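We emphasize that the prediction below concerns an isolated chain of 229 residues; any contacts that depend on oligomerization or on bound cofactors are therefore not represented. The input was used exactly as deposited, without trimming of termini.
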Amino acid sequence: TPKAKCLAVAAFQRLIDHAGAIVLSDFTTAKLLAYRSSVEGDAKLASSGTRKAYFDRGKQVVAFGMRVGLDPQQIRAFLDRAKVLWTASPMPNLHPRPVSREDFAQLLKTAGNGPWRTWLLVSMNCCLHLGEACGLKWEDFDLAVGVYHAIREKTRRHRIARAAVLWPETIEVLQGLLALPHRSAYVFTSRHGSRYNRNSKITAFRELRQAAGLPDAVTFDSVRDGSYT
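Result of the prediction step, given as a token string:
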């Protein structure tokens, strides 16, 4: 995605700037170790997962060169030296923060029979982040059987099966949405027939939360984490 590309380029540029590198051989083991120390000591990168991502992205940019025919000998030599880029800190554990029953009921009450009722029910039922909900397609659902099934593309190398048994309430709102004229393969579409942008829906959810009189701690992720219960 454009965002993933920007993050990868930014991480690689940081590595280039730190090493003062022009060619791959400039990334000596000593310079790579110094770069590792700078990332590990960066207070802004408090999460071990974020630090690992910085290391991995830089290596992935170089490794991609072999897919487009660049010198594999130089690339493999760099990747061997770059094995010193790792973090010893354990990866962070997930800490679900599920929305309370009362707050979710208030969100549904505020949504009424409007579009947000569908967003809320589908996202909690299928355990979806807001960006994932924006990307839902009708082919992911079998409303006759009452299931959701899809493959989530986490990275180029990792594909994860997703599945959920749909609640009667979820089937009902999806059937209602399906009955409306729609010009897209996506479940949630704008008036122009295109899929929604995640950032615009974050703003819209904030407005829903404020209308419901709920605190900022109630986020769309906390709705998604409601699946934890």
